[in-house]
Amino acid sequence: MIPSRTLPRAERLRTLGAIRRLFESGESGFVYPFRYVWFAEADDRMSAEVLFSVPKKFHKRANRRNLLRRRAKEAYRLNKRLLLAEGGKTAAVDVALIYSSKEIVPYKTVENALRRILQQIAERL
């Protein structure tokens, strides 16, 4: 089954317990401009939940944080099939994407970084 290209509420990581588990026992990495943390557990079907964060520490203005968050969401939405379409493997994957650059990078950079992150996670499942 090919995943849809939408990002419904069910695919967003929002429960406090799941977020705590992700940051306490997840694996992390860095691909400019994102730091990412992910956690996978065996499940009967392939699913993914994602959390996007742009810290106020680097971008004080809300409109800039919103712009960067929107770019990350769009790039994830268009490329999530790289993570979900892994043949034969089933797992519930939680991913946190934290924008860690002080500059506002172009959308192409964000998309390429997200594609690499999703490929790295899919390989390690």
TrEMBL record:
Catalytic reactions of this protein: Endonucleolytic cleavage of RNA, removing 5'-extranucleotides from tRNA precursor
Gene3D superfamilies: 3.30.230.10
EC number(s) from the headed UniProt entry: 3.1.26.5
GO BP term, pick one: tRNA 5'-leader removal
Recorded GO MF terms: ribonuclease P activity; tRNA binding
UniProt KW keywords: Endonuclease, Hydrolase, Nuclease, RNA-binding, tRNA processing
Domain of life where this protein originates: Bacteria
Region forming the signal peptide: none
Pfam families: Ribonuclease_P
Subunit structure as annotated in this protein's UniProt entry: Consists of a catalytic RNA component (M1 or rnpB) and a protein subunit.
Family to which this protein belongs: Belongs to the RnpA family.
Function: RNaseP catalyzes the removal of the 5'-leader sequence from pre-tRNA to produce the mature 5'-terminus. It can also cleave other RNA substrates such as 4.5S RNA. The protein component plays an auxiliary but essential role in vivo by binding to the 5'-leader sequence and broadening the substrate specificity of the ribozyme.
Protein name (database record): Ribonuclease P protein component
Originating gene: rnpA
